[in-house]
């Protein structure tokens, strides 16, 4: 009790200091606002003198001065504003843990209080340490006793004599307990027994040791995290972003960090975590969005198409080939041949007439010696073409259309054409020439622009040429394919391209070829790339991302058991990754403990896998999953309704996860008049509270209190390659899992009868 009193007193003191700091900061803010007003007033004194050179110079100088002042004020204001936010957050919850640490060589034991941000009332007197500070790492890493922790100056040894955890609400300590474990199980239990919500939560107070390793790793060029469903991969990685922004503050901005996520719904699900921790959000994208940004004119197949479109065996084998690293290398080899011959151009046209033919462009392109790279060739070709076009201006000035245009000029058009130019001409001819030149230059501007944007490259034709020749650069037989089957595949791609569409299989190679031909050096200012659900990427895509972000460190998270798009190929992914990144630069972290689901659900989900050995359930008890096999659709609906009512009574929410979108629509059609039911049709929707009906491929990464797996019948889930899908669906459930099936249960759900209840 004494301890509680002591801690409450200390807390009161800290809160008081926070309030004092808030008042000080308020003053700063209003001072900054006042200064701002003065700067604004200053603009009125900036005289725009533009008739003379010295006048212009003077104006520029005073503008520059104003800008400088503006910048300083803005900086002051921003930091004061930022500080206001930090203080507000600290006021709500100043800290969540205390560790007592005695550094080696020191005779003092120092209590360290850990919170979401650092706070000191005077220089070097830290009342709260940021959870990302080097010393805070101890809290997550070790129990009592001797410890080591990393500091910018090197490894430090110390002794931990106390670990204490707090829950603080409205300025009062509601719970306090001491522990000798890493992060006490009780605290973790409290954290994970909560209900699901439409937004992911931060795990800052209960980060586990293995997770902490992921969060604080700064060495690896490739950090590969293999973790079971619900093992906190995504949670840990969001903390990692926050950590990196802190660790490299001043040198790293949120705009230099990109997170590739599986779908938009997931983006929406995680986008509160960083702002709630007081950090800016990183750039979040799906690979789909990335490609559409790069190639807006080509439409990539949607997730639904990728998941549901039936494919023949031959198509599947082609897909395998196109996802391989060997195919990536094939693009590179093909591109090399373009140094000698074979580049495809489009002629440069003006008003429908061909000004420079393809052959002419090719002649220029290949007129440079073999030491030129593709990008240098393109660069000098572009320059030559621009010069050539400039040369056309004088011949074009004599064209009939120009004469006609001049004759038809109205007074206004005449004025705006000449703009600021002096209007005194020697004679009529000089006037005519001046006008003609301006008219032709105007008309040609778009052509010049196209040339400078290298539109004369015919990338579509180039890509088709590559597809046709690819068998020269890759061994088809390795993929059980022959020339004829390959060429049939090429025809299918061609058909798609006619309607400006591409599959993901083709889209990435297309972008890569485009980049290589243009000599792109990638997006070099991006420093960290995070890829969630890595198992759904192909080695080709990963090699491409590495090429695109050459300066970035990669963190890849995945669960090979949830490979619902790439299926069995995902198994070799890690090996292939090690070919992209050298072994010394890569680190693999495995997370085996799952936190999302109750022990009963985890055990059941694990049994669905053939080799689910490396999954440890967290000890949290709940009801066993139920399996109910019924005769018809109506009874399935009935059972679902009963389950939803039960979950609702406990203030929890249910998701019905169907295999396909069509099924989701079908279920929605009969349930739409029930209370609070929403169907998720596309990834661009938002998650809302209430009952959700979601197709499986959109449920990736999400979690729900209760999950109803819809129609797990033999008819619906047949092949062994759907095992991972079944596992992914089952592992979305936190407290309750209900499997419904119509007719006969899928053999994929044949697990030990002790693991579930049959209804
Ligand atoms: N250290 C932790 N403390 C508290 N809760 C945690 C911790 N780690 C994970 N969780 C909780 O476990 C659940 C699953 O975490 P998360 O979604 O990050 O897992 P995941 O590995 O990305 O899962 P999946 O692969 O299935 O998408 C979340 O509710 C998360 O809050």
UniProtKB/TrEMBL annotation:
Residues reported in the UniProt entry to bind ATP: 227-234
UniProt keyword Nucleotide-binding present: yes
GO MF terms, alphabetically ordered: 3'-5' DNA helicase activity; ATP binding; DNA binding; hydrolase activity
Alphabetical UniProt keywords: ATP-binding, Helicase, Hydrolase, Nucleotide-binding
Biological process (GO), any one: recombinational repair
Xref: Pfam families: UvrD-helicase, UvrD_C_2
Signal peptide boundaries: none
Gene Ontology CC: one annotated term: cytosol
Record has Manganese as a keyword: no
Residues covered by the UvrD-like helicase ATP-binding domain: 206-598
Domain of life: Bacteria
Alphabetized NCBIfam families for the sequence: HelD_BACSU (NF041464)
Protein name listed in UniProt: UvrD-like helicase ATP-binding domain-containing protein
Species: Weissella kandleri
């Amino acid at each position: 009790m004494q301890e509680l009193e002591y801690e409450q007193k200390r807390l009161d003191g800290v809160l008081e200091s926070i309030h004092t700091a808030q008042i000080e900061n308020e003053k700063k803010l209003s001072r900054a606002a006042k200064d701002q007003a003065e700067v604004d007033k200053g603009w009125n004194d900036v005289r725009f003198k533009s008739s003379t050179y010295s006048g212009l110079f003077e104006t520029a100088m005073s503008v520059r001065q104003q800008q400088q002042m503006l910048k300083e004020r803005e900086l002051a204001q921003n930091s004061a504003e930022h500080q206001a936010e930090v203080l507000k957050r600290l006021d709500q919850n100043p800290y969540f843990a205390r560790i007592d640490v005695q550094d080696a060589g020191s005779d003092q034991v120092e209590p360290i209080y850990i919170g979401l941000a650092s706070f000191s009332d005077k220089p070097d007197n830290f009342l709260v340490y940021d959870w990302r500070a080097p010393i805070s790492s101890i809290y997550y890493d070790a129990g009592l006793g001797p410890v080591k922790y990393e500091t910018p100056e090197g490894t430090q040894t110390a002794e931990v004599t106390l670990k204490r955890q707090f829950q603080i609400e409205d300025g009062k300590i509601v719970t306090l307990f001491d522990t000798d474990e890493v992060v006490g199980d009780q605290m973790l239990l409290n954290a994970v027994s909560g209900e699901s919500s439409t937004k992911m939560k931060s795990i800052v107070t209960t980060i586990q040791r293995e997770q902490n390793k992921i969060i604080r790793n700064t060495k690896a060029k490739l950090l590969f995290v293999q973790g079971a469903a619900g093992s906190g991969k995504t949670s840990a990685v969001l903390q990692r972003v926050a950590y990196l922004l802190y660790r490299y503050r001043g040198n790293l901005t949120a705009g230099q960090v990109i997170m590739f996520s599986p779908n938009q719904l997931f983006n929406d699900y995680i986008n509160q975590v960083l702002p709630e921790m007081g950090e800016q959000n990183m750039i979040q994208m799906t690979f789909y969005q990335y490609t559409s940004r790069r190639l807006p004119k080509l439409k990539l197949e949607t997730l639904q198409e990728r998941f549901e479109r039936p494919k023949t065996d031959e198509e599947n084998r082609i897909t395998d080939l196109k996802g391989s690293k060997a195919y990536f290398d094939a693009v590179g080899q093909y591109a090399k041949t373009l140094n000698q011959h074979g580049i495809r151009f489009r002629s440069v046209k003006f008003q429908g007439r061909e000004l420079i033919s393809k052959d002419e462009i090719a002649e220029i392109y290949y007129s440079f010696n073999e030491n030129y790279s593709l990008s240098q060739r393109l660069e000098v070709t572009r320059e030559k073409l621009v010069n050539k076009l400039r040369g056309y201006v004088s011949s074009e000035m004599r064209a009939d259309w120009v004469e006609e245009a001049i004759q038809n000029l109205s007074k206004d058009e005449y004025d705006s054409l000449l703009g600021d130019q002096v209007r005194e001409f020697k004679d009529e001819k000089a006037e005519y020439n001046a006008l003609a030149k301006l008219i032709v230059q105007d008309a040609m501007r778009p052509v010049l622009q196209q040339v400078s944007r290298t539109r004369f490259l015919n990338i579509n034709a180039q890509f088709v040429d590559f597809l046709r020749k690819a068998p020269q650069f890759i061994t088809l037989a390795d993929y059980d394919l022959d020339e004829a089957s390959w060429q049939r595949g090429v025809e299918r791609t061609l058909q798609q391209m006619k309607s400006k569409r591409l599959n993901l299989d083709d889209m990435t190679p297309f972008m890569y070829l485009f980049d290589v031909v243009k000599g792109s050096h990638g997006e070099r200012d991006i420093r960290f790339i995070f890829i969630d659900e890595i198992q759904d990427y192909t080695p080709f895509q990963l090699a491409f991302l590495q090429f695109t972000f050459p300066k970035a460190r990669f963190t890849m998270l995945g669960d090979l058991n949830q490979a619902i798009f790439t299926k069995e190929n995902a198994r070799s992914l890690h090996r292939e990754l090690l070919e992209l990144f050298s072994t010394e630069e890569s680190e693999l972290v495995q997370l085996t403990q799952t936190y999302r689901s109750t022990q009963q659900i985890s055990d059941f989900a694990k049994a669905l896998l053939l080799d689910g050995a490396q999954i440890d359930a967290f000890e949290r008890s709940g009801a066993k999953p139920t399996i109910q096999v019924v005769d018809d659709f109506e009874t399935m609906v009935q059972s679902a309704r009963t389950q939803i009512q039960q979950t609702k009574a406990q203030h929890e929410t249910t998701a019905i996860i169907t295999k396909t979108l069509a099924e989701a629509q079908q279920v929605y059609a009969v349930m739409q008049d029930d209370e609070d039911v929403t169907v998720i049709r596309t990834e661009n929707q938002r998650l809302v509270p209430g009952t959700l009906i979601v197709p499986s491929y959109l449920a990736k990464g999400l979690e729900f209190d209760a999950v109803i797996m819809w129609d797990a019948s033999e008819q619906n889930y047949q092949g062994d390659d759907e095992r991972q899908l079944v596992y992914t669906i089952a592992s979305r459930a936190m407290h309750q899992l209900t499997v419904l099936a119509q007719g006969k249960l899928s053999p994929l759900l044949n697990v030990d009868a002790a693991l579930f209840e049959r209804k």
